[in-house]
Amino acid sequence: MRNPDVLAAATGATIAWQQRLQTIFPLPNGSTDWGWNFDRVERIGLFVGSPGWPPIVATSQITVYSLGRAMTAGFGLSDGASAWLNAGSTYACNNLPCPGSPLRDVSLPGPVPGPSLGLRLRATGLMSYAPGQVGAKFTPDTRVSLEGFDPRSGQTLWSYDAGRNPGLITQTLLPPLLGQETILLHNAGGHLETLQLTDGTHAAAAARTIGWCRATKSYYQRFGFKPRSGGPIAHTFNGQYALFPCSGSTRRVRTPGHAPAFVGEIGARSRNLIIWADVIGVVAAPTAP
Questions:
Q1: Using CB atoms within 10 A of its CB, is residue 106 exposed (0-12), middle (13-18) or buried (19+)?
Q2: Cα separation of 91 and 123, whole Å?
Q3: Looking at the domain assignment, is residue 118 inside a domain?
Q4: pTM for the whole structure
Q5: Cis link prior to 256 (omega < 30° from 0)?
Q6: Among 71, 98, 19, 84, residue whose Cα is nearest residue 45
Q7: Among 29, 152, 180, 212, which residue's beta carbon has the most beta carbons within 10 A?
Q8: Of 53, 56, 60, whose CA–CA distance to 33 is shortest?
Q9: pLDDT band at 224 (very low <50, low <70, confident <90, very high)
Q10: What is the CA radius of gyration of the chain?
Q11: Integer CA distances (angstroms), 50 to 12, 91, 119, 226, 257, in order
Q12: Confidence tier at 219 by pLDDT (50, 70, 90)
């Protein structure tokens, strides 16, 4: 619901409550026109997540976003009342594997458990796009940290400095997965590490470590979308993530003869066979022994 943007919850056919988005997210001009990511966490009685914010510059020649222009919040399931607010961060669950939420959550119909520990990104710098440009460009001061937080209070529990990581910032090329709650990424110094998402512990990883990467698949839509708050008409959209085996630098490697069990949580499983959607098509391999 827009003009103004309104968040609303329904019980059956009845509107249980509605709030202006800016009441919950007081940073001006927040709008789901620019994306959103919310989870319903039933056990704590809260919605948790972030909407999007428009660019700070939008012309026919260039579109510029301030990466620090973001907010994460928790607000009541029953009344929409604000429980907590965190400025400068973007909710990252569903794209990243938040502890407590099965990896298959994004494809499950109906209610899902919601995370026991949330993840959010805190980025600084500017990101820009121009006609004919491949991918985004970033200012030299661009940096990002990954934070684990308590969904009930919004309190930061741990923080990991990932330095300059465009794929993580845009969430278009995510860190390789090593398991349900472990990822592989470079720290601010450029050293490859494993990061345990439950508590933020990290350790050096061998350069040859193999993980599983996810990258967006884009498609072109002839009839574009024009945001009410201005900016160019969008014709290119991102689909669901493809999954592929990769090195710590997110480069594709040869598909292994066996796939780890957690890949079946993202894709599908049939007896001892793991099936997933790769960028090259649908692939299957036996479960790793």
A1: middle
A2: 12
A3: yes
A4: 0.86
A5: no
A6: 84
A7: 212
A8: 53
A9: confident
A10: 19
A11: 25, 6, 12, 21, 39
A12: low
Q: Is residue 280 part of a domain?
A: no
Top-confidence range, 146-160, 208-222, 243-257:
146-160
| 18 touches 8 (CB < 8 A) | yes
CB atoms within 10 A of CB 42: 12
Q: Domain limits at 232?
A: 6-253
Higher-scoring residue by pLDDT: 115, 172: 115
Residue 209 lies in a domain: yes
Contact status, residue 267 vs residue 275, Cβ threshold 8 Å: yes
Residues in Cβ contact with 59 at an 8 Å cutoff, skipping those fewer than 6 apart: none
What's residue 228's pLDDT? 66
Token pair belonging to 16: 């249980």
The H or E element spanning position 218 is strand 211-225
Total count of domains within the chain: 1
Q: Which residues contact 289 (CB under 8 A, 6 or more apart)?
A: 258
| Cβ 249 vs Cβ 176: under 8 Å | no
More confident residue, 20 or 108: 20
Position 105 scores a pLDDT of 46
Query: What single-letter DSSP state applies at residue 22?
Result: H
Question: Bridge-partner residues for 158, per DSSP?
Answer: 148
Read off the tokens for 69: 């222009």
Establish if 137 belongs to a structural domain.
yes
Are the C-beta atoms of residues 215 and 193 closer than 8 Å to each other? no
Q: What is the DSSP letter of 265?
A: H
